[in-house]
Write a structure and sequence with these properties.
With 397 residues, this protein is α/β, with parallel strands linked by helices. It has three domains: 18-107 and 246-273, 3-Layer(aba) Sandwich (Rossmann fold); 111-245 and 278-284, Rossmann fold (3-Layer(aba) Sandwich); 292-395, Homeodomain-like (Arc Repressor Mutant, subunit A). It has 15 helices and 14 strands. The strands form four sheets. The protein has a six-stranded mixed β-sheet with strand order 7-6-10-11-12-14, with helices on both faces. A four-stranded parallel β-sheet has the order 2-1-3-4, covered by helices on one side. β11, α7 (229-233) and β12 form a beta-alpha-beta unit. The longest helix is centred in the last third of the chain and has 19 residues, at 337-355. It is globular, with a radius of gyration of 25 Å.
Length: 397
């Protein structure tokens, strides 16, 4: 008998999903969010992506008649919320703005952790006086402001607040009353550490200080709660900024949208992504400490964060006994020299993990850790993940 020839089934091509990305391309945050989306699509796609160059104040919209399977958007206005809701497709929101009547699942920056990070950063640099430059009527700004103030309250440190009405969105009005702003700055006890919502707010503080002869950072240290590289660096005094994990926000938003497009439900209505850390530039590059030996010790630790150092090494450089050095650290900073050394090594390792492609053993060696295993233990204790996993998460890979 002749055997019947088996029919080979023709593979069915998976349709390529069409995804719209409505995120501005003019800011560091927006471009990094898009990078995170792209990283996910390259690995799990392909996706046919609609995206156009847009500024932060442009009204983001889809072309008439556009149809697709999903949308990732910075939903900051009611009209865009209504337009994308009418598409009846899965939507993921990456905006910190919460509009009434809008229930898209969100993947956003953790503003509470940003406020706490800023407070810790200033406290570690020895500051005793604090202020927040706020924007009126924006709940998300108030969330960050409250977290900053509460973190300082835990250390029994008061915080002064100066609020202005924004011109549009979360941008300050450049026609503000500069006299009131400068009067507020002059009345603050010096030196003072000021946290602002964004780089434009930081630049206003910088210009006001310049107009009345206040030194930055010696009299007023300025930190932007978001790091827009162009705006922070393009200033006569570069402004320090908190680095938001925007790539991870984009990657997580893309992963969530992919699940939604496959018919799954969102496990949480809101996913909060913690900030990466502070990028120190000239506007905060000072220590509000008047003890000469302590200043020398801290400078020694900061400049040798890539090398293994011991507390005795620090004491010798500062010209004091180890016991006296430990007393000074506890009295002024509330921590030991050993914990400061560990912190410096840890921050150096984080910078190398995020900013370079060095292998993990080289990161450990260039961060003052005695071994990759010890560095891995530190990361597992702090972040519940290995250094390699931390690198991948922060880069949205």
């Amino acid at each position: 008998m002749r055997r019947k020839k088996s029919r080979r089934s023709t593979p069915v091509e998976r349709p390529i999903p069409r995804v719209a990305v409505l995120v501005d391309t003019s800011t560091t945050w927006g471009r990094q969010v898009i990078t995170g989306i792209q990283n996910y699509a390259l690995k799990h796609g392909p996706w046919q992506t609609f995206i156009e160059p847009r500024g932060i104040d442009d009204r983001l919209s889809l072309p008439r008649g556009w149809s697709g399977q999903g949308v990732i958007a910075r939903v900051g206005r009611s009209e865009i919320a209504r337009a994308i809701k009418a598409l009846n497709v899965p939507v993921v929101n990456v905006s910190g703005i919460q509009l009434k009547g809008t229930d898209f699942p969100r993947v956003v920056n953790d503003l509470t952790l940003v406020g706490k990070l800023a407070a810790r950063y200033f406290l570690e640099r020895g500051h005793l006086n604090f202020a927040y430059y706020s924007l009126i009527g924006l709940p998300y700004v108030y969330t960050q402001q409250t977290a900053f103030i509460n973190a300082l309250k835990e250390e029994a440190r008061p915080c002064s607040v100066f609020s202005v009405r924004p011109q549009h969105g979360s941008e300050p009005n450049w026609n503000l009353n500069i006299t009131k702003l400068t009067a507020w700055l002059k009345d603050l006890p010096k030196p003072v550490a000021v946290l602002t919502w964004n780089a434009n707010c930081g630049r206003q503080i910088l210009y006001a200080c310049h107009s009345v002869g206040l030194m930055v950072p010696e009299d007023v240290a300025i930190l932007s709660a978001s790091d827009d590289r162009l705006l922070c660096e393009f200033s006569h005094i570069p402004i320090s900024g908190i680095q938001i994990a925007a790539v991870q926000i984009g990657h997580s938003a893309a992963a969530l949208l992919d699940n939604l497009m496959h018919g799954h439900q969102a496990l949480a209505q809101e996913t909060l992504i913690p900030p990466i850390g502070v990028i120190t530039r000239q506007s905060t590059d000072t220590l509000a400490i008047h003890d000469a030996a302590l200043l020398k010790a801290l400078g020694f630790i900061r400049t040798r964060a890539s090398q293994p150092i011991k507390v005795d090494d620090v004491a010798v450089y500062a010209g004091v006994s180890r016991r006296l050095l430990e007393m000074k650290f506890q009295k002024v900073l509330g921590r030991s020299p050993a914990s400061e050394i560990r912190r410096a090594h840890f921050e150096r390792a984080r910078e190398l993990l995020i900013g370079t492609d060095l292998p993990i053993p080289e990161v450990a060696a260039s961060s003052g850790f005695c071994s990759p295993e010890y560095m891995s233990g530190v990361f597992k204790a702090r972040f519940k993940q290995t250094p390699l996993r931390y690198r991948k998460n922060m880069r949205g890979r």
